Structure formats: C-alpha cells, structure tokens
UniProtKB/TrEMBL annotation, chain A:
Similarity remark: Belongs to the ABC transporter superfamily.
Protein name: Methionine import ATP-binding protein MetN
Domain of life: Bacteria
Pfam families, per the entry: ABC_tran, NIL
Assembly behavior: Homodimer. Forms a membrane-associated complex with FtsX.
Organism: Planobispora rosea
Keyword Translocase assigned: yes
GO biological process, one term: amino acid transport
Automatic annotation (TrEMBL), chain B:
Segments traversing the membrane: 20-41, 53-77, 83-106, 147-169, 189-212
Top-level taxon in the UniProt lineage: Bacteria
Any one GO biological process: D-methionine transmembrane transport
Identification of the protein by name: ABC transporter permease
Species the sequence originates in: Planobispora rosea
This protein's UniProt keywords: Cell membrane, Membrane, Transmembrane, Transmembrane helix, Transport
Domain spans labelled ABC transmembrane type-1: 14-208
Chief localisation class: membrane
Localization of this protein: Cell membrane
Protein topology in the membrane: Multi-pass membrane protein
InterPro entries: AA_ABC_Transporter_Permease (IPR051322), MetI-like (IPR000515), MetI-like_sf (IPR035906)
Family membership noted in the UniProt record: Belongs to the binding-protein-dependent transport system permease family. CysTW subfamily.
GO cellular component terms given for this protein: plasma membrane
Length: 355, 218
C-alpha cells in the first residue's frame, strides 16, 4: 500500500548539511498498522512527511496505493493527497472553525457540494463519537476530543491510508487507549492502512502489526512484530521487554507464542544445570503472548542445555563474556558487527548465538 | 468664543476627520492586506517563496514607514493630483494618509499571519489544499483576531496622521485645534477639540479590542 525506496532527505541548514534520511526502504502492506519507532532525531517525522510529500525527498521514490507520488505534478499531487489522511501530535485544527467546520474543510477543498458536505460531516462525527460536539469550537474540547476531530477530518476523503505522527503523545494514558481503540477499529472496519510514528511502546503493543526501528536516518530492522522479536539482537525485543543490563555470561531467552510451556523446569530436569532467573517480562503483542527471560545458567551441561532450548525453537542469546570496561547493556548482531547499544555504550566483545 | 460659535466648527471638523479616516482606512486595508499577505507567503519557507520579491516588498514597506508623514504628504502631491484631480482638500488628504498607513498596516498583517502555526498550514497542505485556499480559508480566518487588533492600531494612527492634513487644506479636528486654538489663542476650543479627539480614539480602541477579544475566544 505504501512503498518507499531509496529515500534520502538532506536538509541544508545555513551551509550545514543534515542527512535526515539516508536511504530508507519501507513497505507497508494493505490493511496493516505499521509503527515506526526510534530515538529523537532518527528521522521518523521526516519519513512520514515524505510519504505525502509535505517534504520533497532529495532522492528516492514514494508510492501510495499504486501511484508514484514522486512522479506527480503539483495539481495531481494535491488530488492524491486527498486520498491520504494525516493526523498530528498537536491536532492542527482550525481554531476559527467549529468542529463541523473543521471536518468540512477537506470536503470544501475537494469541491464537495454543501448538502453532501453536511451529510458527510454528520456521518464522520458519528463515526468518531462526537456527534454532539458539532457546534463546539476546538478551544472548548479536551485533547482526546480534538484528536477525534482530527481523525474525522483525516477520514473525510475516504482515504486508503492514514498517516499519524505521534497522535497520542499529547494525551493522557486513558485517552490514548480510547484513541488507539478507535484507530484499531477503523483499521478493522474500513480496512484502513495506518502508518504511525510513536515513541510509546504500549502503542506498538496495543495496535501495531509491523514495526520499523529507525536510527540515524536508517531503518535498523523492520517486519512483523512476532518475527522481529524472534530475531537475534532485536532492538524491538530489547525495547518491549526491558531487562536489567546483562552481566557477562548471562543468557537471554526469548519466546513467542509458547508462554505456557514449562521449558525452564524441563531444562533443569533433563540436564545437570542450575538456573537462576534474573529478570523477565511477558507481553501480549500483536495478538500473541511473547516474553523474555534473563537467566544465569551454570553447571556441567550448560552448553547442552542451551542447545536444547534453541532446538525447542526459542531464541537463546548469550551476553558476551569479555566486555572491556563498559557495561554490557546490548548485544551484538548475529553477523558480529559491533554497534551501539541501548544506552549508547558500545559493545566490543563477540556474541555467541545458538538457534 | 461661545459654545454656539464652537459647535458648528467642531461638527464640521469632526465630519472632515471622519471622512478622511474612513476613506483612508478603506484604502489602507485594500493596499496593506495584500501587501502583508505577500510579505508572508513570499518569505523563505512560505507558500510562494520568492526571496527577491520578498526583499523588494520589505524595502518598500520600510521606506514607507520611515518617511515622516508630513514629508510624505508633500512628496506625493503629484500623485495626489493624478488620482484625485486636486492637491488640496479633504479627499486629497486621503492619498497621503493611505500611503502612510498601508506599509504600517502591512507589517501588522504580517505579524498576525505569522502567528498562525506551521502545523495548521501543513495540515491544510496535507489535505490537498492549494495556496489560495490556504490563504483564504486558513491564514486569514485563523489570524482574524490579530488582524482586527492591527486594524484598530492603524485607525488610531490614521486619526493622529489626519491632524496634519491641515497643511494641504484637508481640515479636520487637528487642523481646527491648530488654527483656532494655537494661532488665535482660543484655548477653550483647543481643549474641547483635544477632548473630542481623545473620545474618538477611545471609542475606536474599545470597539476594536472588544471585537478582537470576541474573535480570539474560540
Ligand atoms: N526543516 C528542517 N531543517 C533542517 N533540519 C531538519 C529539518 N527537519 C528535521 N531536521 C533534522 O532532521 C533530523 C531528523 O528529524 P525528524 O524530525 O525526522 O526526527 P524524529 O525522528 O521525528 O524526531 P522526534 O522523535 O524528536 O520527533 C534531525 O536531525 C533534525 O534536526
Ligand atoms: Mg518527530
């Protein structure tokens, strides 16, 4: 539904060049909710704004619903944008218009007639549960209500795609949940494809089907959530299941969809090992339960026990044994490339992984 | 001078001031509003970026604002003759008044429009709105409270400028105060004239504030 390839965006800021996107490829399938995660300044907003060409990419192509937007002229682009909804962190409503007037705005832009317009507005406000606020001004609404107006407005053109840049980060937890539920509903009932940016893990857990993790203008990893969590060295798994910093020799076991199997006690029974559990977390993500355990495994049959766990289909990652100086709070990737870890500390030792 | 003598003089002068201010306000808006919009949209990162045009317009506005009104009034006499057909009288004063106030108003329009968030403008762009739609349906309506406040300040400035219109035979309250009060030592008339001016300015400011506040409430 959304295809981005080779996307680069370089900002020129008083002679200095800022590479906000450094060759990004992204594929969002029809009907999915796709989350983009990453630290501040990673380029998430730039990526989103390149999808509807609010920002002109320096290089690369963007296609939405089969149309290559980067190839369109200005008038065609404006028309294409009418089929792409967008919601904003700070709502970006027109304060001089009522709720109904705000929702009518995109319809006016599209040249929809007055009678049809008011019919559509009523329908959209009904959809987001704000039928009774049609005559209110944005200044008289709560944050959650404002975002509902934003969503109704974004849906006015019957878009196939909805873009959302931190649409819930200005809202309190309860309101966030109700907005997420609304988005999930729209996704399910209208088949709306949603590309959203967030820094809140519970948004990812709650509604995303797929995720891309960005860093320094690049996509570090992307794919279905369950698949990503099961991938060695996954940033997403580290973010979803915050565990204490690993000590050398610790083992992290990641499991998806088999939370109820007693693997740890099995291992202790079958092999001559001792297991102490250092930390663990269990989450319901993308409809499956997944979890991570950080354990210390000691004993003569340690290697055999680890292979057994890997054979059972669990992801077993060992923290590097020789960590020079710094705390080992990140793992190396499977390919052994040294890279920056979660708290910005660099891991220098090799990683051993068994699958 | 008795009250009976002062009455008609005051009445006539107030009428002349009102005439000058109303007409010049109208033309100031017609000239200054597009100029203010142009200053905003031609700026870097604006809807129609054009650095050169922006620089030229900025220069024109600054020149207009730095000329003392009394100098401007004399300097535009040829233009006044061209437009009004005469260079003296109440209508003739409307030309320099407009030219003096329009750059001032344009800057206030610019300031008011810049108050409209980038977010709001980009949201409209994301909905496929074109430049003119954004100017007409987003920028101007969203800035309307600031625009009214700017217009109020401009009208008050015009009332004050119009006091100098006596120089080209424009008449008005300021002219009355100078001719009778100052040159003929009619202190009472001068004081009364000044009071009338103060009352008018107060009325304009209060009305403008009330409207601006009403518009800002939403
Ligand atoms: N208009 C701009 N001009 C210059 N540099 C910019 C501009 N917009 C973004 N950048 C730079 O591009 C980089 C990516 O910015 P972007 O806003 O996409 O980050 P982000 O991932 O959305 O961050 P956040 O989580 O804080 O919103 C940053 O280094 C930022 O400073
Ligand atoms: Mg951002």
């Amino acid at each position: 539904m959304i295809d981005v390839s080779g996307l680069r965006k370089v900002y020129r800021d008083r002679g200095r060049e800022v590479v906000a996107l450094d060759g990004v490829d992204l594929h969002v399938s029809e009907g999915e909710i796709f989350g983009v995660l990453g630290q501040s300044g990673a380029g998430k907003s730039t990526l989103l704004r390149c999808v509807n060409l609010l920002e002109r990419p320096t290089a690369g192509t963007v296609s939405v619903a089969g149309r290559e937007l980067t190839a369109l002229g200005e008038a065609d682009l404006r028309r294409a944008r009418q089929g792409i909804g967008m919601i904003h962190q700070h709502f970006a409503l027109l304060s001089s218009r009522t709720v109904a007037g705000n929702v009518a705005f995109p319809l006016e832009v599209m040249g929809v007639g007055r009678a049809e317009r008011s019919r559509r507005v009523a329908e959209l406000l009904e959809l987001v549960g704000l039928a009774d606020k049609a005559g209110a001004y944005p200044g008289q609404l709560s944050g959650g209500q404002k975002q509902r107006v934003g969503i109704a407005r974004a849906l006015a053109g019957n878009p196939s795609v909805l873009l959302s840049d931190e649409a819930t980060s200005a809202l309190d937890p309860g309101t966030t949940q109700s907005i997420l539920a609304l988005l999930k509903n729209l996704n399910r009932e209208l088949g709306l494809t949603i590309l959203l940016i967030t820094h809140e893990m519970h948004v990812v857990k709650g509604i995303c089907d797929s995720v891309a993790v960005m860093r320094d203008g690049l996509i570090e990893e992307s794919g279905g959530i369950a698949e990503l969590i099961a991938r060695p060295g996954s940033r997403l798994a580290a973010e979803l299941f915050p565990l204490p910093a690993p000590e050398p020799g610790n083992v992290t076991i990641t499991f998806t969809g088999r939370a109820d199997e007693p693997v740890v006690s099995e291992v202790v029974r079958k092999f001559d090992v001792d297991v102490s559990i250092l930390g663990g977390a269990l989450e319901e993500v993308a409809g499956v339960s997944a979890g991570r355990l950080r354990v210390r495994l000691t004993g003569d049959e340690r290697a055999a026990a680890l292979s057994y766990l890997a054979e059972r289909g669990l992801l077993v990652e060992e923290a590097p044994v020789s960590v020079r100086g710094e705390r080992a709070d990140a793992y190396n990737r499977a390919d052994g490339n040294s890279r920056t870890g979660g708290n910005g500390t660099s891991v220098t030792g090799p990683a051993k992984e068994t699958r | 001078m008795t009250w009976d003598e002062m009455g008609p003089l005051l009445w006539e002068s107030t009428g002349q001031t009102a005439l000058m201010v109303v007409w010049s306000t109208l033309f100031t808006v017609l000239l200054g509003l597009p100029l203010g919009v142009a200053l905003v949209v031609t700026d870097r990162g604006g809807l129609l970026p054009s650095p050169l045009l922006n620089r030229v317009l900025g220069l024109i506005v600054n020149v207009g604002r730095s000329l003392p009104f009394i100098v401007l009034m004399i300097a535009v006499i040829p233009l006044t003759r061209l437009i009004v057909g005469t260079t003296i009288g109440t209508f003739a004063a409307v030309v320099p008044l407009t030219l003096g106030a329009a750059p001032f108003f344009a800057r206030l329009v610019e300031t008011a429009l810049r108050e409209v968030g980038r977010d709001t403008v980009q949201a409209a762009q994301a909905m496929g709105a074109g430049r003119w739609t954004i100017i007409g349906k987003v920028l101007l309506p969203e800035a309307r409270s600031g625009l009214v406040a700017g217009l109020t300040v401009t009208v008050v400035a015009l009332i004050s400028y119009s006091a100098m219109a006596g120089v080209i035979g424009g008449g008005g309250l300021g002219d009355l105060a100078i001719r009778y009060g100052y040159q003929r030592f009619e202190t009472t008339l001068m004081v009364v004239t000044v009071i009338v001016l103060i009352v008018i300015v107060q009325l304009v400011q209060t009305l403008g504030d009330a409207i601006a506040r009403r518009l800002a409430r939403h």
